[in-house]
Structures are given as C-alpha cells and as structure tokens.
Amino acid sequence: MSLPKVVLVTGSSAGGIGGALCEEYARAGCIVYASARKLESLEGLAQTGEIRKIQLDVNDVKNVEEVVKTIIDAEGRIDILVNNAGVLAVGPVLDVSIDEVKAAFETNFFSLLRLTQIVVPHMAASSATDTKGLVVNIGSITALVPIPWGGIYAATKAAIKSISEIMHMEFGPLGVKVLLVEPGGIRSNLSTNYAPKYSLPSTSLYKDYIDSIIARIHVSQQPGAMDTNEFARTVVKASDIPPILSSSSKAVAKYKWNPKWYLLAGKNTTLFWLLTWLPRTMVLRLMWRRQGGGQPKKK
To answer: Is residue 298 very low, low, confident or very high in pLDDT (cuts 50, 70, 90)?
Structure first.
C-alpha cells in the first residue's frame, strides 16, 4: 500500500483556517496532527478521519523540537508541514509598540522559519524517489498590495513571501517542495477575536481615523469572503495529495506527487494581483482613498 501523508498543521484552532485545513487534509486520507498553544482550542474540530491533537507553542523552540520528535517517533516521518499560525497586528505604524511588532514577527515569521528548519531535514532524509516533502506557508495578499493601518501585519506576510521564494529554490535539490498560499478575504474568527481588544493610544495622531482603522480589522470578513472550508479544499487540492493505493496498482508506479508552488484564493485576490501591474504610486493612492479613509472625518 502507498502510505497516507503525515501532516502537521500549526494554528489549528477550531473555527479558523487551521482547523478547516486539518479537517480537509484528514478527509483526503492524511494522518493529521492538529496543533495549537492551548489544547482546548482544538476541541471543536470535526472528528473526520485521522486527526490527532497536540499542544504546540510555535514560539517555544524546545516545545517545537519535542513535538516534531513525538510525531517522527510515532509515524516515522512528516510529509507535509503547514505553517498557518499567525496573529493580527493592526494600527498606525506610529502607534504600534515595538513589543507588538516583535510579537507579530515572532509568531507570523520566525515560528514559520523555526518549524521549517527543524522539519525539512527529516523530509530530506526520506527514501522517496520524487517529492520527499511539502512545506505549505500561509501568507496574505497584503504582501502584494499593503492596506493602510495593517502595515506590521503586511510586513510579516511580505517576509513570508520572500522567504518562501528562497525556500522554493534552496529546497529543490533536497526534493522538498514549497507551496506559498496568499489568501484574500477568508471567513475566520481571527478578526472577531482581535477587534474587542483594540484601541488607539491616548497620544495617537490618528484619532480622527478610528472608524477606518476598526474597519481594517474586519476587512477580510466583508460580504463575499470565501468560506473557510472552501478555502481549505482549495489548499488541499493544490497540495496534490496522492491517493491511497494498493502496492500492486499500476497507478502507484505512475503517480508523481507534484504540488503547486503558488496559490491565490479568497476575496479580492484577482484584484490585488492586477494592481501589482499598475504604477505603484497610483496603487498606493487608490488604497489610501479606499481603505485609509482619505481626509479624516472630524468628530
């Protein structure tokens, strides 16, 4: 028999993108390790196929090493690493504290790099003759065109875009593929969880823009946002999960695991891609008028 793929997904809380990805990879016949900083956040995951819940703080290198070892000891391999864990960081650049900037980069970027550095050597050691593993990095269309009031978040996602392109080149000789996913508007609970905690500092120069700043928090949840489960199905399809086949099947010999390299999915992705072809000053002016608030509305 061809073996099912072993998948580790970070940031797998139920109700979010990570949880939906876990459920969809499991439906595709994979053995899925759903991970989150708090195990209770995994309780709402559907009992679909092989989903195994594990506590993982992506910012704790010792914890990461222990979890990877646990999976390798149990399964013998990790075939697919999905770097999905992330946090929002919204607000004017002048108002976001350096500590918050560091925290955003720690979770959104450095944890991705940390997991990848620990997992990929195991993938490269695989005896597979074609693709030995797949790293799926969840970025954002804000890496293509940044939106006002989301500069720190966009910067973390731009870093993911750049490092994914480097990984794509450097991992090629190792037989490890990379799939960079840049979502647009996807239904999730990320904005809902973030908004109640947000406020401008009393010294902010942007108090007259507060309505636009709050709207930025919810911009991905506007009407027309892609359903989370539909997004997950799109990502799993791009991952090109091989079918579980009998070793005697001729299809086993013929099948080549060939995941995509790049995926745009969700609301406004086509628009943002088209905007990359326009003069940059025109694009930035347009984004400010549509998302920044233009002239402040005096209270």
So the answer is: low
CA distance 99 to 257: 42
pTM to 2 decimals? 0.91
What DSSP state is assigned to residue 49? S
Task: Select from 152, 131, 130 the least CA-distant residue to 140.
Answer: 152
Report all structural domains of the chain as residue ranges with CATH numbers, in order of start: 6-292 (3.40.50.720)
Dihedral sign of CA atoms 56, 60, 64, 65 in order:
negative
Containing 82, the helix (H) or strand (E) segment is: strand 80-83
- d(Cα 123, Cα 175) in Å, to the nearest integer? 8
Catalytic residue among 5, 53, 132, 153, which? Answer: 153
Residue 157 annotated as catalytic: yes
Give the residue among 59, 63, 39 at the shortest CA–CA distance from 103. 59
**Is 254 labeled as catalytic in the residue annotation?**
no
**Catalytic member of 5, 53, 132, 157:** 157
In 3D space, the residue among 4, 21, 177 whose CA is nearest the CA of residue 75 turns out to be: 4
Q: What is the pLDDT of residues 116-162, one digit of tens each?
A: 999 999 999 998 878 899 999 999 999 999 899 999 999 999 999 99
